[in-house]
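Two proteins were folded this term; both appear here.
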Amino acid sequence: MDVRILTGAEIRRLLPMADCIEAVDGALRALARGEAAQPLRSITWLPDRHGLLGTMPGFLGPAEALGLKAITVMPGNLGTPFESHQGVVLLFEPRNGSLRGILDASSITAIRTAAASGVATRALSRAEAGDLALLGSGVQARAHLDALRAVRGIRRVRVWSRRPERARTFAETESARTGLAVEAAPSAREAVAGADLVCTVTASTEPVLRGEWLAPGAHVNAVGACTPSARELDTAAVLRARLFVDRRESALAEAGDILIPIREGALDERHIVAELGEVLLGRATGRRGPEEITLFESLGLAVEDLAAAHLVSARADAAGAGRAVDLSGGEHPPKAFQLPGDFSGQSKERDP
């Protein structure tokens, strides 16, 4: 059986942001309906903790997509030829377990992460919101600009980075690419002032967004911090907001933006209003008024990767895109064998 290998360039061509937003929307609804398997990711830190390997398995029922993302996260790669997130998404056929696709995880992650914020922004922000603040100027800042443009009429964009030259470069490049007036802000506070849409997409382990800066009615997508000891928002920002997550179990195991305030005694898990999928299905109320601040804590889920990978793979199959490889080398499959008694249902007794 051939395995289709898809590069980052092919994935970006086959997965427009607007289409990925709809795919992620569907995946989050399926998760809320109990039509998906979403275990916690497994994290393996390198001994000096400069980076990690994450493995994220899952199953998405409506698409019958079974798979695993294996990805390294190396924050120190900023400014080097290497991306901070590198790896593969493995897509299996669930009926017989055969491997059908190997996809570049960097591009899948970049697009689907921003797409999830697009889903949250569409569901939780004010319909007229259009003043965007981006805290961070890397891959996710660019992807989030595209995602929020897809769901809201963006009028103004301000970007801030701990490296001012990167913010200036981002502003110049994205102004030319999008036709929007993207401004480089000298401070995070000045970027956020008056904004009704805020995205934190940094590699920071300490707060870059403070609650006192948030304007009434703002919606925040918190994206960058994905470990219990790292956060981008201070406690006041979380306390001021009506809090939504992609998955409760994941948030209470991994989200430093939530876990650190809990350890401080400032709030407890009841501060989480709902999972985003529950809002999409109408089982939970999202924004309740124009002055309310809403917060989406995004950790990223395997079902989002699977939704994106399944869509891309189907389009690649139809277009003949990518490279089809027979990993077996053309060999015939081995003869059927019998599983041990524990698994086949036969007696566990063994010959002496």
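Next, the second protein.
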Amino acid sequence: MSAKDSFSMTLATGYHGRARPLWEGAVDTGNLNLKVLPMRDDGERHRRFDQGEFDAAEYSLAMYLSLKARGAPVAALPIFPNRRFRHAFIYVPATSKIGKPQELKGKTVGIPSYLNTCALWVRGILKDEYGVAVEDVVWKVRRADPDLAPPAGVRIEPLDGKKSLCARLLEGEIDAAISPDAHQFEVEGVRRLFASAKEVEKNYYLRTGIFPIAHAVVVRRRLLDEHPWLAQKLFDVWNEAKRIALEDDDDPTYSNFAWIRDLWAEEKKLFGPDPWPYGITRNQAAIEALIRYGVEQGILKEKVEPASLFYPVQE
């Protein structure tokens, strides 16, 4: 990269450890002057990126699949700073008779929106693991997705008013809820559908090799095309930030958790030294599942190759 190629750009990230070294300036970005804005509110970050405020942003993969299907002038890099197992994010009233995921058939399930990555993963897992197809449930959404054309037979109905999904669940307006906002549901009267979600999720990973991805880093396509070095630079910068974050996690004096060494040892035994791999190669199974779910759920028009979803970089 030469001096003439250097330039400034804005990057909006989530508020988490994998991005913290970027906004704290702990990563040498060379000729790339990176203005990093950490944001706790995912919805606000998405809206402001969509409105053109940022050059790049950590972005929902479900929403990116929708943009990709419509040919939007953006491209994702295979940088995945947010991922979570999803069995733990299905909630029912504590008094509900629903005890197994198969019993969600014919029920109403509240979700933030149909283009919510947590909900996308849960819908796919429900079908793959428990035989509950997307058509078997009535999906009650707090936020409509006007550009979405769901497959025939998929029922998506709006929820009126501003009440939270948790309030609607407690009042019996919906039978279950799927949401990444776990804090909202940590109240009396609500329980997880999977009481031992961690063990179910570990078993799922051991069988499938999938650690579900939630976000990628999305960049204005013209910037990547105008600056051929930029995609690789961002990929390398994010990898260095993650290396620093994992190094911090390995330090028991850094964490607030009393048994962090035990947790760290457990994770390394399950995932190896890096539970947050970037790039396509080490995430092939998760990306292929994401694509298949996108097609089955009407978010993608047709099956695509993993490499076609992401701007090429050297891993």
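The mean pLDDT is 95. DSSP finds eleven helices and eleven strands in the chain. These notes refer to the second protein only.
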